[in-house]
Queue: 4 jobs
Job 1
Amino acid sequence: MWKGVAVFCFFFVLVIVTLIWMQPSSQESALTALTASEQVLDQIKSSDTAAKLDEARALLGGLKLSAKEQSALNNAIADIDQARLAIGADNAGLVSYTAQIKTLLGQAKSNLAALTAIERARAVKEQILVLVWPVVIGILVLYTLNSKKSIEALTRLGSLISSVKIPGGLELNFQTAAAIKTTQEEVLKSYRRQVIGQYSSVDAKYQISSTVSRIIEDKIKPFFDSQSLNPDFRCTIHVRDILFENSLYQLIDYLPRKWTTLGKGGRGRAWSIRFGMMGRCWRLEQTEYQGSVPTDQIKLMTDWGMTKAEAETSSRSQTLFCHMIFANNKSPLASFYLDAENKDAFGDKAKMDALEGTVAAAITEYHLDDALQKVWGDLQPTAPFIEIYSERK
């Protein structure tokens, strides 16, 4: 990183120097004007009037006239002599003044030339300041972000200072790590409350809970009666969680209703698709059911994606049934879930296969899949889908 910073600084200095030497200055303009003035003065020459007067006097002096006319001629020659003297004096003054002006111009050019480089630097002062301070701040930020000591120092400073008041009424507030964590937790809780409210709204709108309750009463309980089974089961629907990417959400409370009266409704829970049989069915995009669940903690961790703590406190349900419901584009839409605490509560494999057929037919008959498709259609546009874990690029 520092090699790149050094290269950047070199080119930055090069740009500054170029700006200085290319910057037009008032001294350079003055030097140009003085040089032009000198050239004009060099073009000034003594008038040739004196030579013409001398030539006229010579011609008049050679004339021979009568006495009366000679007197007038002599007066004319005398006037020419006076004019000649006046012109000579004027030419001498002109030469003197021109030389004096050129001397002053030379001194001015010398003074201006000595100040030109300094004046150039002053002329680009504002541009230098505009360019320098963002670069300095950027380098400081890069240094801070790449320096562990700087980060630790800022953390300690933030834990000691809660706010700083600056003259002019400006106040800067610093949050500690604990305060930031609390704020983040409050934001996520607020999001989750909004998500629960949205799901509850579409559940009521499309009568998901009522439809599942009718399927239980009209199809599932009669099936168990016909198979001489009386399991103490519970049933619910899981869908995609619209808050977190790759997570599942329990859309309705467990049915029958007694589970809600016992305080075990469960609606609003969410967890990763990497957890448990539910997550495995979702990832594999296939229905799965088992009459018994391993109780060995190692197996739960390796095969069911649980942590040690989760394996130690895993659900006591032994019979699990997860029927996958797919959207029109064949992607996972929801899961129709049943479980019971006893092993083989839904009968042997043949009976569970028959239960799968009954559930699948009931979902189509009661248009539960269509209703869930509408639920997803309503919620998908509002989904933030916060990605907790991302693939390594």
Job 2
Amino acid sequence: MKKGHLSQYFADFAYKRLSAVEALRHRSNQHEFDGVAVLKRMLGDERQTFPTSFIYLTDDDPEPLSDTGFLTWYDARERHPVRSEWRLYFPDTVVSDNANEGDLLIIGRRQDGSLMVIIAEAGSTMENQLLWLFGATDLLHPGFSVKAELESDQVRLEFASRYILEQLGVEVEDTAVNYLERMLELFSGRFPTTRVFSDYARSTLDDLEWTADPDGALLAWLEREEVLFRTLERHVIGDRLQAGFEGDVDAFIKFSLSVQNRRKSRAGSSFENHLEHLFGLLGLRHSRTAVTEGKAKPDFLFPGQREYLDAAFPDLFLTMLAAKSTCKDRWRQILAEAERVDVKHLVTLEPSISIAQTDEMQSRSVQLVLPRGLHQTYAPAQQEWLSTVTDFTALALDRQRQADALS
């Protein structure tokens, strides 16, 4: 097991597509996965019951469905003198109730010996992300394919990998304790505003050559802020947990929700903060959350709100950029923003968005923008259409120069 690799979280894993009898309860009551013979490599040759977490992922729900239970691995012919027939039994869960034929199934063995059953809706972005992360390519045969720890070690966790793991509820252990004392001193042991924290994160990378690679710089800033935030968070939360809640369940739930909400709101604000800083370095004029029609507030408007509201300013020099750290189905919200802009740009950090989703974006005149380092998670045909952050800023700067030349 190598630190910073997939094997740090999964010793080994197996994957396949669900068959009808596995997924549809009215077709079968067997409650067993098919094609399990190869799982002996992973689960051994003795009867065992594994504590198991179950998770179902679909693009339609912002939060995954999850449950806990067990998987039972046993030989149905253990008394037979020569024959064996291994089976893997699963109980009814909210996850099995939602699974469908053709969905992607991944069973991962965690380092503590427990199992994780991950099911992703067929054709979804979540399925795409899991296929990329786990390198699941041979899905044509009906049985499981198994990858061992040695193969997991080859998958080094970068920005996209960590993002996907956290969608699964796998807490990625990545901290920078050497910065903790300085942060406690600067922020008095509390969380500063997101803008202040973004500024601090960038200051720890002051030797970064952003001019040579704006896409790489943006990802580096985001990664550094994430690591620093988790370092400070672990300290602050640790102190609160150590103080205890004295049996007050409501206080504990309130605290837990505040932690989750802080993480979600900070991620989006951090993304916008670093983009805004990059635009400033490039001399790219813009308005952040400017008001256009009605109550619409696009994240970034170029060259600004004043020009947008000036009917005499040419439409072809206006550019709109929506920034969403994660997309899911929420990207359609931007269609009603900035009516004067025909092609709307959307920058995201979400890897492996499904082909169906990107095809719809193209048909709705939405241009997807991602830092170059995330393009590899997309299919080759999608990559031909994607824009980089560098591409986008070059376009906006060119329009700014043309507009200035006319004034």
Job 3
Amino acid sequence: MRLIVLLLASYYFYARWNEKYLFLIIFSTSLDYFCALGIEHYRKKAKLFLSISILGNLSMLFFFKYYGFFAETALKVSEVLGRPMYLPILELILPVGISFYTLQTMSYSCDVYKKVIKAESNFLCLAVYVANFPQLVAGPIERAGDLIPQFKKKLHFNEQDFIYGLQLICWGLFKKVVIADRLSAYVEWGLNSEEIHTNEVFLISGYFAQILIYADFSAYADIAKGSAKLLGINLMDNFKFPLFSRSMPEFWKRWHVSFHNWFLNYVYYPLGGGRVGFARVQFNIFIVFITSGLWHGSAWRFILWGIFHYSLVVIHMLLVSLFKRMSWSLPENSLVRFLQINLVLFQRAMSMYLFFITDSEKAVQVYKNFFIEPWTGLSGLNSPFVPFIMLISFLFPIVMILCEYLHLKISWSIRFNLMSRFRRWSIYYLMLFLIMIFGVETNNPFIYFQF
């Protein structure tokens, strides 16, 4: 009965956006259900069933997400070559969450093929795994072996888990409404307005943009994890304090962890991983970053974004290799850690122009200006509303970063339990007050809903 309620709630949740696209989730679930059973019962034809599963999901994803991009690119290339061709340009609405649940269903078929798990005979259980509403539209991308067993076990109400779930939801709402939505106004003005800003303004906008996307995306992850916790379901931690990363490879291990693990297990390792020669390893990493860039969006700027991050990772790997050969090592002290963290934050700020600036030519121009145009100061901040936005934008991210730094020492659940009731509820009421005050002003969707 619990599975039926969860499935109906999940389908209703998704249908509230657009009921016409509900059939895509049902199709993907049915496809992988029968393919997984075929893989398990007909091992000689396991590759065939796996291929059907992967091609079916990727075809659906390609049609709705990438067809327009590739059609427009093919038309432009054909015109340059002097052989114009005709391809219909379809105005399709991108189904919310399609990039997440297709990866999740494909991972299920792949795990059955690799004999990591057995095929699920209960269609209802698999359907809940695919459509589980807390993480349906923006992850985390859970593996079937971690999530499906939780749907089958008998549950007993746990008061501490329920409280922890509410704390996560409250913290997620605070990060989204109070921090991310405040930053979005400045980032939009700084990166996508028609005004020509100074390099300093673009640099500040880049720093704000990376905090914005982290606060926004991790807010959804917290709300999803907290909502699942209320139902007795444990979701993985999708973020492990990435703002404290000391290198770009470390950053990708801390950022969108489920996405990173998916590409490791189902793209990088099948290509050979790090067990092959140096050139092949670089090729494998390149494929991972190109496909992850395309996953984020059907535009050239996301491909360039993937190449940009690939370059940073490769440069780090080459420097580490050089340091080992020369028997050099950096001293382990607070100053070095501080400089390393700030270097990663600067690199991420530079990548944000490709992520947020919708005009690729403008993004390239911003990079050029950093090396060509003089740095003239913050003269672009003359707009009357900008100083107030910057004040708010600086204040609350500092609060968030400080809170997460303290969380590294003692988890929030333990920290709150150690507080007096008065202090604990004072913090709750302050957070709820700020959520209600700032929540009235904007109604911004989560950034990763567009992917």
Job 4
Amino acid sequence: MSAETHQLLVYGVLAAAPLTLLVLLFLSAPYGRHMRDGWGPTLPNRWGWILMESPAVLVFSWVWVQGDHAWEPAPLLLLAAWQLHYVHRTFVFPFRLKTTGKRMALLIPTIALVFNSVNAVVNARQASHLGDYGLSQPTLWIGLGVFAVGMAINLHADTVLLNLRKPGETGYKVPMGGLYRFVTCPNYLGEMLEWLGWAVATWSLGGLAFFLYTSANLLPRALQNHRWYRETFSDYPSERRALVPYVL
């Protein structure tokens, strides 16, 4: 891949961020609690998750092994962080779901499949080929530290949500404890911190583009989930914010 093509893909991710934010502020994506008819064919949500997240593992790995710096110590730390998140998200998280019979519109994993493929190419190529990373770089360790904090928040919040349901249950309950004391969607906050950390660790436009796109995707969803909880549960804690404690 030429440098010009790589830059075009980065600019494509950057351009997708404001467009995604604009669309999702007015339209809730049809999956989870916002699933509804009228969006075409559907598939089981477990397989939808696997389909849409798999390029982040497989395409990323394929591009990575071709990189000139793929097996150097600092890039290997970046590889470990990326795959730690996405192997879990692709091949572990879907099988932790207790949502028997839940479905999502096929449109969602189709769009995500395209984005995750492009994003995997951009970030794998940056970290394994274009970037010049060393263990002495402060940004590497600061970024990986933020990533680790974000992932811990994300995993804990997901676990709280998954444990709300007993086997066979499909309804919704109000999550409590941890950062749920302060915000409706600490899982989204954690994921945004992960990719902010990635952007700092890679110190790249591609990493920044991914963080901005993630934020554009998750911020509207957090606001929609917050509104849904407040409308559905009359006793929903009024002090909670949607995404950022005491702020938003």
